[in-house]
Amino acid sequence: MAEQKTVSTATQVDDPTKRREEPTWMKEARLASWESYLSTQLPGIRDDGWHRTDISGLNLADLRAVDFHSPEASASVSPWVIPALDSLSSHSGVLIQEAGTPAYLKLDSELADKGVVFCDIETALKTHGDKVRRYLGEPADLNDDKFTNLIKSWFNCGLFLFVPPGVEIANPLLSFTSVNYRSSGIADGAVLPRLLVVASEGSRVTLLHSVTAPLSQAVDTALHAGLVDIHIEQAAHVSYLELTEFGPAVYSVTNTRAWLNKDASFTSLTAALGGRLVKGEISTYLNGQGASAEVAGVVLGADNEKYSFNTIEEHNAPDTRSNIHFRTALKDSSTSIYQGIIRVDREAQRTDAYQSNKNLLLGSGAKADSIPKLEILADDVRCSHGATVGPVDQEQVFYLMSRGLTAAEAEELIVLGFFTTVMAKFDHKPAIAWVGSAIASKLIAHDRDSRKQSAGEQK
Amino acid sequence: MTEKEEILVIKDLHVRVDDKEILKGVSLTVRRGEIHALMGRNGSGKSTLSYTLMGHPRYKVTAGQIWYKGSDLTALAADERSRSGIYLAFQYPVAIPGVSVSNFLRAAVKSRRGTDVPVKEFRKELRNRMSSLNIKDDFLSRYINDGFSGGEKKRLEILQMELLAPDLAVLDETDSGLDIDALKTVASGINSMTGPDVAILLITHYQRLLNYITPDYVHVMQDGQIVMSGGSELAHQLEARGYDWVAPAPVV
Fold this sequence. Notes:
The complex is a heterodimer of chains A (459) and B (252). Chain A has 459 residues and is α/β, with parallel strands linked by helices.
C-alpha cells in the first residue's frame, strides 16, 4: 500500500504521541484509527457526498503532518492576526496556532475561575484528560471515512472548549490557525486540526475559528483536514463560525458534526474563500425534543477552485427545527456542488425543516450543481427546499451603474449583498463584518488581478 | 438674457429593444434651467427614452444622435453618464437584497463627487435631506428597495437625486403609485432641485404631478415619436380632452 512508504508501522505512529506526552488511551485511539485508515479507501466520485468531487489528485502517501507546538508564556500575537483581532474587538479568549512556532493562548481569568476550559488540544490531553477522554478516546468508528480516520490518528493541532453548566459567555472565543507552507519550509504538509466543543446544560458560547494557508504555488500539494465535534447539552447554545482561506495548492476536507440535546440550539456559519479543492460536510443531529439549528454557508470561488459541500440535518426527535442557507458565488472557472440532506426519523413529528441553496455564476466557465435530498419517515412535518443557479441580475447591475458605480463595483456590491443576507443569520455582528471584509478583499484582489491580466494580454 | 446651454440635444433618435423598434425618430432639445414634461399613453415609448438616456445595454440606438453637454452620449456606459451628471429616477427601482441603503448611498456619492465624503459630514447631510422627505432613520440600515412600499421606493429615488445633484434629471413616472401626501413630498423634493443650471425631464402619464411642478414645456409622445409640444397649458388640455385629442390610439 502506498501509505506504507511514509508511515508504515505502529512505532512510527507512536512517535508523535510520545513526544506530546499523551495519555495511553489517546495513543491507543490514534492507533486504532490508523488501522481503520489503512483499511479504508480514498472516497471516489461515486461515494455518497463526493459526487463530482475528484480528490484523486491528492497523494496522501506524500504528505507529512506539520509540527505544531503547545502555547508558551513568551509567545506573542502574530502580526497577521492583529487586523482580525481589531475588527472583532471584544472577545473572551484567543488561541493562535502557527506551524513551527509556539502557540499563543489567552483566556479571561474570570471564565477560567468559573471552570471554562479553552486551550489547544495538546494541552487538553495533558491537563484535562478526564474531560476529553469520553470524546477522543472512543473506539474507532467503522463509519468513519478515510479523512476522518486520518485526522483521528494524526491530528496535530486543534482545540478544546468546555463550558460548565449554566455559564453564559457573552464575547466570542477566537481561534486562528495558520500554515505558512512556504516559510515553514514544509513541502507536502498536512495540517490536521481536531476541535472539540462541549457546551454543558444551559450554557452559551460563540467560537470563531479561522484557518489560513497563504496564497502560494510554492508546493505541489498540501492538505488541511479538520474534524470539528460540537456537543450541545440540554438548553445550551453554541454559535460556531469557520472561515477558511487557502492558496491554490491546498486541498481542504472538513467534517463538522454537532449533536443537539433537548432544547439545545446551534447557529453556524461556514465561509470558504479559497483552495484547490475545498470539501466540507456539516452534520447536525437534532437528538433532543425542541432542538433547533440555523446553518449558513458562504462560498466565494475564483480561478479553478473547486468546492463541494454537504449539509446533513438529522431530525431524530419531535418538535425540532432546522434552517439551512447555503450560498455560492463563482468567478472564472470555479465550480461548486452542494448536496443538502434532510432526514426526518419516524419519531420526529412536527419537524420544521427548510433548506435553501443559491448560486451566482460570475465567470463564464463557472458551474454550480445543487442536489437536495429529503428522507422523511414521520408524517406530521413541514419540510421544504429551494435552489437557484444563475448569473447576476443585470437590472441590479444597471441600477447601481446608473448611480455611478463601475460594472466591477456594482458586481462586488451585489455579491456581498447576496452573502450578507445569509450571514445576517449568524448572531455575532462583528464576526459578520469580519467575514464580509474577507469576502470583499478576495473580490477586489481578484478583480485587480484579472484587470492586470487582460491589460497584459492586450499589449 | 443669454440663452442657456443646450444640455441635451436629441436628433431623430431610433431605438430598438431586443428586436422591436420602440423609438421612431425622437427629437428634443433641453436647456439648463428648464423643466420639460413628457407625457403620453402607456407604451408610447416614454420609459424607453429614459432608459436610453441612462444607457441601459438592452436599449440599442439604431439611428439618430444624443448630444449631452456638447458630446456624443451614446458611447458612454451608464456609470460614466451618471458621473457626468445624468440621473434617472426609476419607475420600478429594483431591490438589491443584502446591500444596505447607507452603504449604497456612500458608494454612489463617492462615485459622483470623485472623493470620499467624511462619514460624519455625510451622515449630517443625509439626515437633513431624509427629514425633509419624511424618511425614517431605520431606512439606512434596510436593504435597497427590499420590501419597500411604492412610496418608500420613490422617496429613495428622490433622496438619491438630491445627493447626486445631477445636471440633467430624468424622472420616470415618479408620481405613479403615490398617495397625495407622498406626491406632495416628492414634488417638493423635485422643486428643491430646480435651479438655473439644472435641467429636468419629467415623464408622466397623468397631469397630477404637474399641479405641483410647473413645466416650461410639455411634449406628447405617441408611438415612438413626439407628436405635439407646447407650454404648461398643454398638460391641462390633455387632462381635459384625453390623448385621443392628440392622436388616436394605435391599433394593436
